[in-house]
Design a protein that fits this description.
The protein is of the alpha/beta class. The chain has eight helices and eleven strands. The radius of gyration is 20 Å and the shape is elongated.
């Protein structure tokens, strides 16, 4: 599902792009209000907007009204101001929720999913890859209907590919996405071991993989 982030802080944009992609979302990001309005007009499939109230070109509350004039879409305010008057004003205007900076990405994702459920826009929770099924809502993997027991790291590595089917991942990029899982240390050598273990559990023939492909000299990607 496609989420739009209107935020001029580059660190937040980059961080949320990575984190939300791992949770099954596609993220569009803009740095100002005028740009955001153009994007909304040209993308009819945006399911939710994360709106920073402190933008360089327009007040967030004003932009909120302009967006609602275009499309009635769920909006969560991102604000550095936790004063009650600002919170009440935003909710009274019709905002679906607000998150005060600094926030944890995990908390924000939980808020996003809650709003989407409430507005009948729940994200797709099932991914099918050949005879392998990934149930994101339960962090569960099955092959031909039989449970596949993956460790947390193995599951997250598999999910990186499943959520980005057309992307070639370098080994460095994979490592950057999994370093914090259970605080386990993963280096370039152990990554090879994890990929091998995943293939042994989900591939029909691990020696000739069809799901996680090796792209020689570049990295890995999901099979066709």
């Amino acid at each position: 599902m496609k989420i739009m982030l209107i935020e001029d802080d580059e660190a937040i944009r980059v961080g949320l792009t990575y984190y939300l992609s791992q949770e099954g979302f596609s993220l569009l990001s803009t740095t100002n209000g005028n740009q955001a309005l153009d994007v909304i007009l040209n993308h009819k499939d945006i399911c939710l907007i994360l709106l920073d109230l402190n933008l360089p070109d327009i007040n967030g509350f004003e932009l909120f009204k302009k967006i609602k004039d275009i499309k009635d879409i769920p909006i969560i305010f991102l604000t550095a101001n936790d004063l009650e008057v600002s919170i009440v004003m935003g909710l009274d205007m019709g905002a679906d929720d607000y998150v005060t900076k600094p926030f944890k990405a995990k908390e924000l994702v939980s808020r996003i999913k809650t709003v989407l459920r409430r507005t009948n826009g729940s994200p797709k929770q099932i991914i099918n890859i050949k005879d392998v099924t990934i149930d994101i809502s339960q962090a569960k993997v099955m092959k031909n209907g039989i449970d596949v027991m993956l460790t947390a790291l193995e599951y997250k590595i598999l999910l990186i590919f499943a959520l980005n089917p057309n992307t070639i991942f370098t080994r460095e990029k994979i490592l950057a996405n999994i370093w914090d899982v259970n605080e386990e240390y993963v280096n370039d050598n152990t990554l090879t071991v994890y990929i091998k273990r995943i293939r042994e559990k989900i591939e029909d023939d691990p020696s000739s993989p069809k799901i996680i492909l090796t792209i020689r000299g570049l990295g890995y990607k999901l099979g066709e």
